[in-house]
Amino acid sequence: MPILRSPTLASLALLGLAIGAAPLARAADPTPAELNERLEALDQQVKALTRKLEAANEQGAKPADGGAHAVASDKDGFGIVSADGNTKIKFWGYIHADGRFFFDDDQTRLTDQFLLRRARLVMEGTLAKYWDFRIMSEFGNVAASAPAVVSLTDAYVIGNFDPSFKIEVGRFKTPIGLEFTQNDTVTMFIERGYTSNLVPARDEGAQVFGDLLGGRLSYNLGVFNGGVDNANRDTDNADDKDAVARLLATPFKGGFAPLANLTVGIAASYGSADGVPGAGTGLPTGFITAGQNAYATYAAATTANGRHTHVVPQLYWSWGPAEVLAEYAGSNNRISAGAAAPSVNVSNRAYVVEAGYIITGENASYKGWSPNASFSPDFSSWGGFEVVGRIEHTALDSRAIPFLTNGAAVAGVATVASQRFATGFGAGVNWLFNRNVKLMLNFEHTTFDSGVAGTGDREAENLIESRLQLVF
Question: Does residue 335 contact residue 303 with C-beta atoms inside 8 Å?
């Protein structure tokens, strides 16, 4: 008689069920050989099911179609993704805790302070594969002298139909300034350069954009309410709208390594702005230094009154650990001392050149970089270090002089005379502990020239600034 093979426990259980379910009236008992074959078949089925369960566990027990699973990483934050990947939502944010310390400020008496420069929460994701969205709220100090506030910073929807053609509608950064459109968490310096004084910030509008020729050419074409330089636009007080266009070319992408990341471009806008004295003037509240102090301001009665245009050539280059960002901004406004007064065309200019070198050897990028090894408390690894430097300059049009504050007393408080020219020199070091934590330290020296109304030059501004950045 053949010897029965030892069945697995599962095989015996299945066999017991089969025997228990058998009818009382049945055919003759199977022979030992037939019973052995049945047990072997059941054993093979159990092993196949076990292998499938093990594979499912290795893949993270992926849910059935239509389900969703949670994800979390130090790079992408926290989120939920559908089983097919077509719908997802992600939560992340960042905090900028700054310190500003001025010295040699006997005349201007600038305020040393700690401040929560930015505290932002972001919710973004994709719906039905093609529709991206983003909502970002602000909880930090939006200005040096302002208390922390809660406000809506970004809110937009993107129809992501093809890399060469996307549609964006809502509130977002106007695609003009190169440094301004760079993410706040990856800039080389704590505060952006002087060109950001002469380009609009965020505005409501719509644009089409995309990448062509394998990413060698990108474009933006949009219509906006009409942004104020260095300010977010929350409402519109005129029917006229601004047309904005930008072209960026990376002609050597994928080719000769030293030039593969060279990007050159130009942005421009055309529109009309009308303001009301004291509120919604259509003009910047002030031209500010790296320390966020105004060195020139328009008088209270001055308003925008007509055509407003921008022209901004720009460049970014990186090769290995080295990077350079440069741009020149021209902002042209028609302004007047009241809606009924004659208007004057004012052309203000600024440029900035920034350079950085990552001394720990990582590759620099416009979108930021992360250290190859994170900082360890036992000092076996120090993270990544970058040294940076920049030069920048602003020149306000001589035709703007009659419209600038000149140091006259206002409500018993003497205002600081506006300066036509400002030149800044900066240096700093950025220490990235990991992709989430960065410590920045900057030194900024700004000189001024040609104070209006014969008031002379303002004393130089000297600043040591620090920032602890947390991205989560």
Answer: yes
Structural domain including 35 reads: 9-22+29-58
Q: How many domains does the chain have?
A: 2
Q: Which amino acid is at 26?
A: R
159 strand-pairing partners: 131, 167
Residue type, 399: R
For residue 351, give the amino acid letter.
Y
Residue 363 sits in a domain whose CATH number is 2.40.160.10
Q: What residue ranges of the chain have pLDDT lower than 50?
A: 1-26, 61, 408-414
CB 267 within 8 A of CB 331: no
As given in the structure block, the two tokens for residue 9 are: 């426990």
The whole-angstrom separation of Cα 289 and Cα 421 is 11
CA distances from 250 to 215, 310, 335 (A): 7, 22, 37
DSSP secondary structure letter of residue 85? S
Please tell me the predicted confidence (pLDDT) of residue 253. Answer: 96
In a domain, 141, yes or no: no
- Is 84 inside any structural domain? no
What's the confidence (pLDDT) of residue 455? 67
Tokens linked to 399: 């035709």
Enclosing H/E stretch for 4? none
Closest alpha carbon to 144 in 179, 170, 110: 110
Cβ-count burial of 322 within 10 angstroms (0-12 exposed, 13-18 middle, 19+ buried)? middle
Q: Which two tokens stand for residue 22?
A: 């058998």
Taking the alpha carbons of 16, 20, 23, 29 in that order, is the dihedral positive or negative?
positive
Query: What is the Cα–Cα distance from 22 to 279, expressed in whole angstroms?
Result: 90
Task: Work out the burial of residue 210: count CB atoms within 10 Å of its CB; fewer than 13 is exposed, 13-18 middle, 19 or more buried.
Answer: middle
| 301 & 353 share domain | yes
C-alpha neighbours within 13 Å on the C-beta side of residue 441 = 5
Which residue type occupies 7? P
The Cα–Cα gap between 9 and 240 comes to 80
DSSP string, 251-299: TTTTSSGGGTT-EEEEEEEEEEEE-BTTB--SS-S-EE-TTS-EEE-B-
Q: How far is CA 469 from the centre of its chain?
A: 13
Instruction: Tell me how far the alpha carbon of residue 202 is from its chain's centroid.
Output: 12
Rounded Cα–Cα distance for residues 255 and 190 (Å)? 33
Cβ-based burial of 36 (10 A; exposed 0-12, middle 13-18, buried ≥19)? middle
- Return d(Cα 171, Cα 233) in angstroms, integer: 9
Main-chain dihedrals φ then ψ at residue 12, nearest 5 degrees:
-65, -40
432 and 297 within one domain: yes
Both 248 and 304 in one domain: the answer is: yes
Phi first, then psi: give them for residue 80, nearest 5 degrees.
Answer: -130, 135
Q: How far apart are CA 71 and CA 68, in angstroms?
A: 10
